[in-house]
User: Fold this.
Amino acid sequence: MNLKIIDLARKNIRDIQPYQSARRIGGSGDTWLNANELPISTSFKIDIENLNRYPQFQSKKLISHYSDYIGCNEDQILITRGADEGIELLVKAFCESKIDSIITCPPTYDMYRICAQLFGINNKVCFRLSNWSLNILDIKKKINNVKIIYICNPNNPTGNIISIIDIEKILEISFGRSLVVIDEAYIEFFSKGSCVSLLSKYKHLVILRTLSKAFGLASIRCGFVVSNLEVIKILSKVIAPYPLPGPVEQIAVSSLKKENIFFMKDCVHSLIKTRNWFFSELKKCGFVIKVFNSYTNFLLVKFSCVESIINSLKKKGIIIRDQTEKYGLQECIRISIGTRSECLNFLKVIKNI
Assistant:
Protein backbone atom coordinates (compact mmCIF):
# COMPACT_ATOMS: atom_id res chain seq x y z
CA MET A 1 0.00 0.00 0.00
CA ASN A 2 1.41 3.35 -1.07
CA LEU A 3 0.88 5.96 1.67
CA LYS A 4 1.05 9.60 0.59
CA ILE A 5 1.57 11.78 3.66
CA ILE A 6 0.48 14.83 1.65
CA ASP A 7 -3.03 13.34 1.56
CA LEU A 8 -3.20 13.57 5.36
CA ALA A 9 -2.51 17.31 5.38
CA ARG A 10 -5.30 19.90 5.37
CA LYS A 11 -6.28 20.79 1.82
CA ASN A 12 -5.45 24.48 2.14
CA ILE A 13 -1.97 23.57 3.43
CA ARG A 14 -1.39 21.23 0.48
CA ASP A 15 -2.11 24.09 -1.91
CA ILE A 16 -0.33 26.91 -0.09
CA GLN A 17 2.84 28.60 -1.30
CA PRO A 18 4.88 29.42 1.86
CA TYR A 19 6.23 32.89 2.48
CA GLN A 20 9.56 33.32 0.74
CA SER A 21 11.69 34.94 3.39
CA ALA A 22 15.07 36.37 2.44
CA ARG A 23 16.93 33.47 4.05
CA ARG A 24 14.59 30.88 2.56
CA ILE A 25 15.22 32.21 -0.94
CA GLY A 26 18.92 32.31 -0.15
CA GLY A 27 21.59 33.47 -2.54
CA SER A 28 25.36 33.43 -2.46
CA GLY A 29 27.42 36.50 -1.72
CA ASP A 30 28.61 38.76 1.04
CA THR A 31 26.49 41.88 0.44
CA TRP A 32 23.02 41.29 1.85
CA LEU A 33 20.63 43.98 0.65
CA ASN A 34 17.49 41.84 0.56
CA ALA A 35 16.06 41.58 4.09
CA ASN A 36 15.77 45.20 5.31
CA GLU A 37 18.18 44.53 8.15
CA LEU A 38 20.19 47.22 9.90
CA PRO A 39 23.71 47.04 8.41
CA ILE A 40 25.26 47.81 11.80
CA SER A 41 25.65 44.90 14.19
CA THR A 42 24.74 45.37 17.84
CA SER A 43 26.00 43.34 20.81
CA PHE A 44 24.67 42.78 24.31
CA LYS A 45 25.80 40.71 27.27
CA ILE A 46 23.42 38.10 28.64
CA ASP A 47 23.25 36.06 31.83
CA ILE A 48 23.29 32.40 30.85
CA GLU A 49 22.36 31.09 34.28
CA ASN A 50 18.89 29.67 34.99
CA LEU A 51 18.50 28.30 31.48
CA ASN A 52 16.86 25.28 33.12
CA ARG A 53 13.88 27.46 34.07
CA TYR A 54 11.01 28.48 31.81
CA PRO A 55 10.74 32.21 31.08
CA GLN A 56 7.80 34.34 32.19
CA PHE A 57 4.63 34.25 30.10
CA GLN A 58 5.02 38.02 29.59
CA SER A 59 8.10 39.80 30.90
CA LYS A 60 6.98 42.63 33.18
CA LYS A 61 10.39 44.25 32.89
CA LEU A 62 10.35 44.26 29.09
CA ILE A 63 6.76 45.49 28.95
CA SER A 64 7.65 48.32 31.35
CA HIS A 65 10.60 49.38 29.19
CA TYR A 66 8.59 49.21 25.95
CA SER A 67 5.70 51.08 27.55
CA ASP A 68 8.07 53.93 28.45
CA TYR A 69 9.55 53.90 24.95
CA ILE A 70 6.28 53.89 23.00
CA GLY A 71 4.25 56.02 25.41
CA CYS A 72 1.28 53.83 26.30
CA ASN A 73 -0.02 51.82 29.27
CA GLU A 74 1.63 48.53 30.19
CA ASP A 75 -1.67 46.62 29.92
CA GLN A 76 -1.87 47.63 26.24
CA ILE A 77 1.19 45.56 25.27
CA LEU A 78 1.65 41.89 24.38
CA ILE A 79 5.16 40.58 23.63
CA THR A 80 5.37 38.29 20.58
CA ARG A 81 7.97 36.39 18.57
CA GLY A 82 8.45 39.18 16.08
CA ALA A 83 5.56 41.11 14.55
CA ASP A 84 4.86 38.00 12.43
CA GLU A 85 3.45 36.17 15.44
CA GLY A 86 1.15 39.11 16.08
CA ILE A 87 -0.23 38.84 12.54
CA GLU A 88 -0.96 35.15 13.09
CA LEU A 89 -2.44 35.57 16.58
CA LEU A 90 -4.96 38.12 15.35
CA VAL A 91 -6.27 35.78 12.63
CA LYS A 92 -6.29 32.84 15.03
CA ALA A 93 -8.21 34.74 17.72
CA PHE A 94 -10.70 36.79 15.72
CA CYS A 95 -11.48 34.98 12.45
CA GLU A 96 -13.84 32.02 11.93
CA SER A 97 -12.62 29.65 9.22
CA LYS A 98 -14.67 29.76 5.97
CA ILE A 99 -16.90 32.50 7.43
CA ASP A 100 -14.80 35.61 8.07
CA SER A 101 -12.47 37.56 5.81
CA ILE A 102 -9.52 39.90 6.07
CA ILE A 103 -8.65 42.81 3.81
CA THR A 104 -5.14 43.31 2.43
CA CYS A 105 -3.93 46.13 0.19
CA PRO A 106 -1.29 44.92 -2.30
CA PRO A 107 1.44 45.52 -3.04
CA THR A 108 2.22 44.92 0.62
CA TYR A 109 3.72 42.41 3.07
CA ASP A 110 2.71 38.88 2.03
CA MET A 111 2.40 37.38 5.52
CA TYR A 112 -1.07 38.90 6.03
CA ARG A 113 -2.38 36.94 3.05
CA ILE A 114 -0.48 33.77 3.90
CA CYS A 115 -1.69 33.72 7.53
CA ALA A 116 -5.27 33.95 6.29
CA GLN A 117 -4.67 31.03 3.92
CA LEU A 118 -3.20 28.94 6.74
CA PHE A 119 -6.42 29.27 8.76
CA GLY A 120 -8.88 29.01 5.87
CA ILE A 121 -9.82 32.69 5.98
CA ASN A 122 -10.87 34.55 2.84
CA ASN A 123 -8.65 37.45 1.76
CA LYS A 124 -10.46 40.35 0.14
CA VAL A 125 -7.94 42.26 -1.95
CA CYS A 126 -8.17 46.04 -2.23
CA PHE A 127 -5.39 47.03 -4.59
CA ARG A 128 -3.64 50.32 -3.91
CA LEU A 129 -4.05 53.28 -6.21
CA SER A 130 -1.34 54.27 -8.68
CA ASN A 131 0.38 56.48 -6.08
CA TRP A 132 0.33 53.55 -3.58
CA SER A 133 -2.32 55.23 -1.38
CA LEU A 134 -5.21 53.12 -0.05
CA ASN A 135 -8.33 52.64 -2.14
CA ILE A 136 -10.71 53.71 0.63
CA LEU A 137 -13.84 53.39 -1.52
CA ASP A 138 -12.96 49.79 -2.38
CA ILE A 139 -12.31 48.96 1.29
CA LYS A 140 -15.71 50.44 2.21
CA LYS A 141 -17.39 48.38 -0.52
CA LYS A 142 -15.78 45.09 0.59
CA ILE A 143 -15.96 45.44 4.38
CA ASN A 144 -18.91 43.06 4.99
CA ASN A 145 -17.82 39.97 6.99
CA VAL A 146 -14.30 41.40 7.34
CA LYS A 147 -12.78 40.96 10.80
CA ILE A 148 -9.31 42.41 10.16
CA ILE A 149 -7.91 45.10 7.85
CA TYR A 150 -4.11 44.91 7.58
CA ILE A 151 -2.24 48.10 6.69
CA CYS A 152 1.56 48.26 6.62
CA ASN A 153 2.69 51.81 7.41
CA PRO A 154 5.32 52.68 6.20
CA ASN A 155 4.56 50.06 3.58
CA ASN A 156 6.75 47.16 2.53
CA PRO A 157 7.81 46.87 -0.31
CA THR A 158 6.83 50.28 -1.70
CA GLY A 159 8.30 52.41 1.12
CA ASN A 160 5.47 54.95 1.12
CA ILE A 161 3.38 56.16 4.06
CA ILE A 162 -0.37 56.36 4.58
CA SER A 163 -1.57 59.62 6.09
CA ILE A 164 -3.12 59.62 9.54
CA ILE A 165 -6.19 61.22 7.92
CA ASP A 166 -6.69 58.19 5.63
CA ILE A 167 -6.12 55.77 8.51
CA GLU A 168 -8.78 57.57 10.55
CA LYS A 169 -11.16 57.24 7.59
CA ILE A 170 -10.60 53.47 7.64
CA LEU A 171 -11.10 53.41 11.41
CA GLU A 172 -14.43 55.22 11.04
CA ILE A 173 -15.59 52.92 8.23
CA SER A 174 -14.67 49.79 10.20
CA PHE A 175 -16.05 50.85 13.61
CA GLY A 176 -18.09 48.01 15.13
CA ARG A 177 -17.15 45.66 12.30
CA SER A 178 -13.42 45.04 12.06
CA LEU A 179 -10.06 45.44 13.72
CA VAL A 180 -7.71 47.79 11.91
CA VAL A 181 -4.15 46.52 12.23
CA ILE A 182 -1.37 49.00 11.48
CA ASP A 183 1.96 47.25 11.00
CA GLU A 184 4.59 49.77 12.13
CA ALA A 185 7.66 47.60 11.63
CA TYR A 186 9.46 50.53 9.95
CA ILE A 187 8.02 53.37 12.02
CA GLU A 188 11.35 54.42 13.60
CA PHE A 189 12.35 55.66 10.15
CA PHE A 190 9.31 58.00 10.15
CA SER A 191 8.30 58.31 13.79
CA LYS A 192 5.78 61.12 13.35
CA GLY A 193 3.63 58.75 11.26
CA SER A 194 2.82 56.47 14.22
CA CYS A 195 -0.80 55.76 15.18
CA VAL A 196 -0.07 55.25 18.89
CA SER A 197 -1.83 58.54 19.71
CA LEU A 198 -5.05 57.14 18.21
CA LEU A 199 -5.26 54.16 20.59
CA SER A 200 -7.30 56.05 23.19
CA LYS A 201 -9.84 57.12 20.56
CA TYR A 202 -10.30 53.82 18.67
CA LYS A 203 -10.70 50.57 20.62
CA HIS A 204 -10.52 48.51 17.42
CA LEU A 205 -7.07 49.84 16.49
CA VAL A 206 -4.16 47.39 16.78
CA ILE A 207 -0.51 48.33 16.22
CA LEU A 208 2.30 45.87 15.46
CA ARG A 209 5.88 46.76 16.38
CA THR A 210 9.26 45.02 16.24
CA LEU A 211 12.89 45.30 17.34
CA SER A 212 14.03 43.71 14.06
CA LYS A 213 14.52 46.80 11.92
CA ALA A 214 15.75 50.05 13.49
CA PHE A 215 17.02 48.33 16.65
CA GLY A 216 19.11 45.91 14.57
CA LEU A 217 17.83 42.82 16.40
CA ALA A 218 16.27 40.79 13.59
CA SER A 219 17.87 37.60 14.90
CA ILE A 220 16.21 37.62 18.34
CA ARG A 221 12.62 37.72 16.97
CA CYS A 222 11.02 40.14 19.42
CA GLY A 223 7.87 42.06 18.57
CA PHE A 224 4.87 43.65 20.24
CA VAL A 225 1.13 43.95 19.77
CA VAL A 226 -0.14 47.28 21.09
CA SER A 227 -3.89 47.79 21.50
CA ASN A 228 -6.61 48.20 24.11
CA LEU A 229 -6.83 45.84 27.09
CA GLU A 230 -9.72 43.79 25.63
CA VAL A 231 -7.75 42.89 22.49
CA ILE A 232 -4.64 42.04 24.55
CA LYS A 233 -6.67 39.75 26.83
CA ILE A 234 -8.11 37.86 23.86
CA LEU A 235 -4.71 37.42 22.21
CA SER A 236 -3.28 36.22 25.54
CA LYS A 237 -5.61 33.23 25.30
CA VAL A 238 -4.08 31.93 22.07
CA ILE A 239 -0.40 32.87 22.32
CA ALA A 240 2.16 30.18 23.20
CA PRO A 241 2.70 29.66 26.96
CA TYR A 242 6.35 30.82 26.82
CA PRO A 243 6.55 33.10 23.79
CA LEU A 244 9.90 34.75 24.48
CA PRO A 245 13.11 32.94 25.53
CA GLY A 246 14.90 34.32 28.59
CA PRO A 247 18.08 35.40 26.73
CA VAL A 248 15.94 37.20 24.14
CA GLU A 249 14.14 39.06 26.92
CA GLN A 250 17.47 40.20 28.38
CA ILE A 251 18.70 41.53 25.04
CA ALA A 252 15.38 43.27 24.34
CA VAL A 253 15.39 44.98 27.75
CA SER A 254 18.98 46.14 27.23
CA SER A 255 18.14 47.56 23.80
CA LEU A 256 15.43 49.73 25.38
CA LYS A 257 17.72 51.41 27.91
CA LYS A 258 18.13 55.13 27.31
CA GLU A 259 21.69 54.97 26.03
CA ASN A 260 20.79 52.23 23.53
CA ILE A 261 17.71 54.10 22.31
CA PHE A 262 20.01 57.06 21.63
CA PHE A 263 22.33 54.69 19.76
CA MET A 264 19.40 53.36 17.71
CA LYS A 265 18.29 56.87 16.81
CA ASP A 266 21.82 57.76 15.73
CA CYS A 267 21.90 54.66 13.51
CA VAL A 268 18.53 55.60 12.00
CA HIS A 269 19.72 59.17 11.34
CA SER A 270 22.89 57.87 9.66
CA LEU A 271 20.97 55.33 7.59
CA ILE A 272 18.49 57.96 6.37
CA LYS A 273 21.42 60.13 5.22
CA THR A 274 22.81 57.14 3.30
CA ARG A 275 19.35 56.38 1.87
CA ASN A 276 18.91 59.95 0.60
CA TRP A 277 22.38 59.95 -0.97
CA PHE A 278 21.76 56.50 -2.54
CA PHE A 279 18.40 57.73 -3.86
CA SER A 280 20.09 60.63 -5.65
CA GLU A 281 22.87 58.44 -7.09
CA LEU A 282 20.43 55.82 -8.40
CA LYS A 283 18.44 58.48 -10.23
CA LYS A 284 21.58 59.26 -12.25
CA CYS A 285 21.90 55.69 -13.55
CA GLY A 286 20.87 55.08 -17.14
CA PHE A 287 18.93 51.88 -16.53
CA VAL A 288 16.81 53.38 -13.75
CA ILE A 289 13.24 54.27 -14.74
CA LYS A 290 12.15 55.40 -11.28
CA VAL A 291 13.32 55.44 -7.67
CA PHE A 292 10.29 55.55 -5.39
CA ASN A 293 10.26 57.82 -2.36
CA SER A 294 10.85 55.86 0.83
CA TYR A 295 10.21 56.39 4.53
CA THR A 296 11.94 53.13 5.44
CA ASN A 297 15.37 51.50 5.38
CA PHE A 298 15.03 50.33 1.77
CA LEU A 299 14.36 51.70 -1.71
CA LEU A 300 12.07 50.32 -4.40
CA VAL A 301 13.62 50.87 -7.83
CA LYS A 302 12.22 50.28 -11.32
CA PHE A 303 14.77 49.32 -13.99
CA SER A 304 14.49 49.17 -17.79
CA CYS A 305 16.45 45.88 -17.95
CA VAL A 306 15.74 44.36 -14.57
CA GLU A 307 16.75 40.79 -15.49
CA SER A 308 20.24 41.89 -16.52
CA ILE A 309 20.55 43.97 -13.36
CA ILE A 310 19.58 41.04 -11.11
CA ASN A 311 21.93 38.62 -12.88
CA SER A 312 24.87 41.05 -12.76
CA LEU A 313 24.34 41.69 -9.05
CA LYS A 314 24.18 37.94 -8.35
CA LYS A 315 27.49 37.39 -10.11
CA LYS A 316 29.08 40.02 -7.87
CA GLY A 317 27.61 38.52 -4.68
CA ILE A 318 25.08 41.32 -4.09
CA ILE A 319 21.75 39.91 -2.93
CA ILE A 320 18.62 42.04 -3.45
CA ARG A 321 14.87 41.32 -3.36
CA ASP A 322 13.21 40.67 -6.72
CA GLN A 323 9.69 42.19 -6.75
CA THR A 324 8.87 41.70 -10.43
CA GLU A 325 6.14 39.11 -9.81
CA LYS A 326 4.13 41.32 -7.44
CA TYR A 327 1.11 43.38 -8.38
CA GLY A 328 2.14 46.71 -9.88
CA LEU A 329 5.86 46.07 -9.38
CA GLN A 330 6.94 44.79 -12.79
CA GLU A 331 10.62 45.57 -13.40
CA CYS A 332 11.11 46.51 -9.73
CA ILE A 333 13.63 45.37 -7.14
CA ARG A 334 13.79 46.28 -3.47
CA ILE A 335 17.19 47.29 -2.12
CA SER A 336 17.92 47.42 1.61
CA ILE A 337 20.11 50.36 2.62
CA GLY A 338 23.46 48.87 3.53
CA THR A 339 26.66 50.62 4.51
CA ARG A 340 27.94 53.42 2.30
CA SER A 341 30.56 51.06 0.82
CA GLU A 342 27.92 48.39 0.06
CA CYS A 343 25.78 50.96 -1.72
CA LEU A 344 28.82 52.20 -3.67
CA ASN A 345 29.58 48.63 -4.71
CA PHE A 346 25.97 48.23 -5.90
CA LEU A 347 26.23 51.43 -7.99
CA LYS A 348 29.55 50.33 -9.48
CA VAL A 349 28.05 47.06 -10.70
CA ILE A 350 24.99 48.55 -12.39
CA LYS A 351 27.00 51.39 -13.93
CA ASN A 352 29.32 48.84 -15.54
CA ILE A 353 26.56 46.84 -17.26
User: Anything to note?
Assistant: The chain has two domains: 8-40+260-351, 60-255. The first strand starts at residue 31 and ends at 32.
